[in-house]
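STRUCTURE REQUEST FORM
Protein name: Phosphatidylinositol 3-kinase VPS34
Source organism: Sphaerosporella brunnea
Requested output: structure tokens
Priority: standard
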Amino acid sequence: MEPFIFATTRELGQLPLAVRIDSLEGSRTPLPNTTLLKHPELKHVGANTSSCSDLYVTVQVWADSKPLTVPVQTSYKAFKNQRTWMEWLTLPVQYCDLPLSAQLAITIWDLAGPLNTVPFGGTTVRLFDRDNTLKKGRQKCKVWMGIEADGLVDTTTPSPVETGDEMDRLEKLVKKHELGEMPRVEWLDNLVFREIERINKQAQAKAKDEHYLFIDLPRFDFPLVYSEHEYRTPGASGMSSNNMSPANSQTIGTAWQPQGAIDGAIGGYAGPQRMNFKVFDPEVTGDNPAESKHRRLVRSQRNGIVDRDLKPNAKIRDELNEILNYGPTQELTSDEKDLIWKFRFYLTRDKRALTKFVKSVAWNDPTESKAAVQLIPKWTEIDVDDALELLGPSVHNSEVRAYAVDRLRSADDEELQLYLLQLVQALKFEAIRPDAQVDAMKESSLAKFLISRACDNEVLGSFLHWYLVVETEDPDASRKKLYSKIAWEFQVALGKLPDGDKRRETMKRQGDFVFMIGEAAKEIQAVRDRTKKEDKLKEQLKEPSNGLLSFDPLPFPLDPSVHITGCFPENSMVFKSSLFPILVHLKTVKDEHYPIIFKSGDDLRQDQLVIQIIILMDRLLRKENLDLKLTPYRILATSAFTGIVQFVPSMSLAAIEEGKKTPAGVLPYLRSTFPDDTTETGVKAEVMDNYVKSCAGYSVVTYLLGVGDRHLDNLLLTPDGHFFHADFGFILGRDPKPFSPAMKVCKEMIDGMGGTQSENYRHFRSYCYTAYITLRKSANLILNLFALMTDANIPDIRLEPDKAVLKVKERFCLELSEEQAIQHISNLIDDSMNSMLPVLMDRVHGLAQRWRK
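Status: completed
Returned output:
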């Protein structure tokens, strides 16, 4: 009798688990109209409107009713006739680490509107058969419709198909044929497969509303049997393996394993090796009771009068100063916390120390917490950036947060408007219960402060209103209720003002205006021809019943300082884009044009955040007497899928380089708009100054924010030389193009200055260095603003909220000296200019755009 050849899962070494998602088969009965009338939200689910809607699949490894890995999903794919992925997914776990109870929780997801998905169906597949053998080859899995795969031991979404019909029997035989367990006869196989295909079509016609997902697991030349780790007791570590008896061994079996068979299956095998295993201690991340008690004893002995007069020596002063220079993301060690606590009375004279002191307090200790709260009012007045840090998600004490709010009271309305977006997000971290009986203004000092300042200033009030409106659409029910309550209390507070009814009516009219212009944008969606779309748009704007042509003066939501009275329909147009944004020229009270872009179906909150940070950076630079001629156009998200963008008359560098409407090239274009023969470049000095400074400013700003997907179509230039970026769909280092440079400085930009040998180019580099060094001084403020946005619905922050602040901090390079930082920026500029791949990508993008047109 020949020996049975097999291997264990331990022999696969570092080979990761993989699965191929093949196809989804099945039909679905369309929903009756009565169901859609009762549940109108179902009209957004793709499968209810299309028999072959776009789906994607997520796979996650579970064991013993607990997830072992994060989900891995298929890439986006548009289906035409049948849902076929044929995509391999590699999961972040190795075969050798799989437990016997491991199973794949596979969920098929359907799109149900913007930023919303619903489970199309799910199935749970065990990775090991009953005989502890790893499954391999093609698997037919039953899809349980409308629910997510749970991955539990007693799963409600098991994958086995127990139909008992002829097709089930044939599929099992086909699987044996694929695995080589049946002899192959080519002419007979072809006849059989045709007959199986005919039977399969008949079976599908009978089985309505049943779906089956086909997946493929890696095939091996021999069975793979589950094996466990061999753990040894510490006392046996010094013993020779020859002295261990079979009773002490934890090996579950032995096998004859030919070298060639294993080599062919897993790409090489070096024989058995001794391995060191790390066992996770679940208590390692918790508080050490001994250390906690030691800290309490040490601190309790220092609460006397001696502590108040305690002063550090020179060495400790240096240590404290180093700690105080830590950034907001830096965590303190236990020793550093004890040191801060020990010299807390001495540190009250240093405004930088308060945030570090708050981190060093054991807030779960009532005695220590009370002592800390009593000391905070005696602290030297802190800066606004430190106040924002105290309003972050890590600070829960209401009295500390109230102290931070008191510091914000010193900020004027213009400065407060710069942080308003983040302060609205900080309301999530306040201890406000969203119950109807609870007054948020009594519970939250921040809510009371924002409402009070918004009542005193109409511009702040307008922005607060719209920021709250957007947050009331949060998918989280408790947050939605929280923001709805604060918005209601804001309206109540307005009603108590002498002109409160008028201001509330103004906000209602603003909402009606946004709704009507949104309806006009929707009306053109069904029209195919763009020219006809524009004609339809003009008709909608001229229609008296819509109320957009002429109305009483109204503060415009995007810029409340501008009052509008109607629009100019003849100047409106529709952009060439998949979502068809519209350009509308509004009429101001001075009968001037105020052009805006209204977008429907697009979430503008990420663009809104980027523009807000650019406005802040521009203000920080101006405070240092550095005006880089930035042009941060305004953006306001009016909902989760609509928004208004200020239109700045300009041309893209792609259009300028193409030279159809203007002389080709940036420099010839500027010469044609503002010529001056007395200058070296032939361009008016003021215009060239605008261009050089704005190029430098936006190069540094977009680098710090990690803005990606930069190409000549979203680099814009005004006739008077103001250069600026548009479209911030990718930030924090994300970029759809591979090997994109960290800073976008292209040849076309430099040629517009007169080339690398020109004086303008030297000025450009100098402005880049100065801007970077200046903004590094305010790094803590910018980092704290991003920290407050980690829980916001910003797409690129939501991907990795715990790393968003660190990604921005990394680009500030705070560990470098000023000279090193300047050299860092110099290297970035050189790398961007010398890299050929971005030039190639710009040309490919240009060709793609021309092909679309």
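Reviewer notes: The two ends are 72 Å apart (CA to CA). The longest helix spans residues 500-523.
Form closed.
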